[in-house]
Amino acid sequence: MRIGIEAQRLLRPHRHGMDIVALETIRALADYSQHEFVVFVKPDSAHFGLPSSPNIELVELPGGPYPVWEQYALPRAVKQYGIDLLHCTANTAPLRCSVPRVLTLHDIIFLENQPLLRGSLYQRFGNQYRRWNVPRIITECERVITVSHFERQRIIDHLKLDPARVVTIWNAVSDQFRLIDDAEQLANVRSQYNLPQEFIFFLGNTDPKKNVQGVLKALLLLKQEGKLSLPVVISNLPAASLDSILTDIGGQQLAGDIILCGYIPNHVLPLVYNAATVFLCPSLRESFGLPILEAMACGTPVITSTTSSMPEVAGDAALLVDPSSVEAMASQLDRLLKEPSLRDELRRKGLERATLFSWAATASNLLDVYADSIKVNQTISISNTQSSDY
């Protein structure tokens, strides 16, 4: 097979969840030398981490803003490069395409809840484009892939799809996320990001689902009760956003306990997880929750949510908490900080849990979907041709 893979954001310097999933999937697919993979990306500055393999061709495809790129430049390139099937990896796809399409629909948060359309201008624009594109494209794709059983059921129920057309393929954890005991490396990352010897780690950003305000309210409650025993390191959250939230919740007294370290590149994250005492991931909604596994693979105890996909990913290897309850979040964090034996138990269970998710399995399952999608498309084409003969 000659497979086209849409990975338009793969070269941007600040990669996030869907970009990491696309990158690791492409790396794993490179092991299948009997197939050719053409990866279509928008030109940008970051080429680190990309696979170098004779069966992987990277095509930097200009074409203006993302909707224009996807709807016009991408279908033309599919024809030009002789693609048998196009896999769109980030929730949307071209409405017209000359080959079968497989869509990875990570989540349908953008269809569920108007309040979650708040966030940055980029996030709001992206959600509006998805709201326009997904209902139109979903019936045109041979298969829809999503990343958890929870999300699969949400997609089937909300979009009224035939369950046979929607496939769960779990994400996984990369090999770089592992136990690291190199004292020099750990000391360097502490110095670079101003990390204390012990700290609570939280991957925050402006997306409302990350529950930044709820987390800060829980930390403020602990602070007011004299129970916040460690500083809190928050990545990827602008200082202006932090100041605004602290003002809204009357939490300026918390400012001295928080260290903002900016964006942390994915290749540096394993060191930060290893340095952390506890990892917080009490999101309001996730389609998978990749950081949960990443922290576990680094031996970091995790607190995550009882909602959406997070219990499915975490199993019994994390403390689960209602993310809408400030008191519950504060109580569980206090408990984990006070009980070394509980942290040791979660560390052991987390390391075991992370081994259940591999990119090799993801790639193998994807190839099955590709082959099945081409077969289905060919069957439909033959049926349509026969029908037109009568």
UniProtKB/TrEMBL annotation:
Coiled coil: none annotated. InterPro entries: Glyco_trans_1 (IPR001296), Glyco_trans_4-like_N (IPR028098). This is Glycosyltransferase family 4 protein. Residues 17-175 form the Glycosyltransferase subfamily 4-like N-terminal domain. Signal peptide: none annotated. Keywords: Transferase. SUPFAM superfamilies: UDP-Glycosyltransferase/glycogen phosphorylase (SSF53756). Residues 195-350 form the Glycosyl transferase family domain. The keyword GTP-binding does not apply.
